[in-house]
Amino acid sequence: MSYTHWACFDCRKSFAKDESEAARKCPECAEKMIDMGAYFEPPRRLSKKRWDVMKVLADYGYKFNTKDSKVYIQNRILQTKNPRVADVVERIELEKQKQRTE
Question: Cα(34)–Cα(12) distance, rounded to whole angstroms?
């Protein structure tokens, strides 16, 4: 059985649970959690800005399912240790445009 990290962006917490197709609810607030992948490293709970960046990644469908996806997200999308949300959104949009033209 393999495990993945489920994130609750309301509580800013992550839980390692088994992979399944069924949606999971946060044990703290009962809101829907998002599967962020086995290689997701959650930010510290008090780092609201960093959690906001992770939420943007989740909203656009980026997940840390493999080591390669983690490296891609870090190098191409995040680029710095503490990126601004607006910069991340801009880089995601640029990546989408590149994919459309290829």
Answer: 12
Angle between helices 48-59 and 85-101 (to 10 degrees): 20
Q: Which residue has the tokens 């469908």?
A: 61
Long-range contacts of 60-63 (CB under 8 A, 24+ apart): 60/92, 62/92, 63/35, 63/36, 63/37
Provide the 8-state DSSP code for 42: P
- Whether the Cβ atoms of residue 37 and residue 64 lie closer than 8 Å to each other: yes
Residues 6+ positions from 91 with CB-CB distance below 8 Å: 76, 77, 79
Rg, C-alpha atoms of the chain = 14
Whether residue 15 contacts residue 5, with contact meaning beta carbons closer than 8 Å, is answered with yes
pLDDT by residue for the chain (102 residues), tens only, comes to: 578 999 999 999 999 887 776 778 999 999 999 999 999 999 999 999 999 999 999 999 999 999 999 999 999 999 988 999 999 999 999 999 988 887
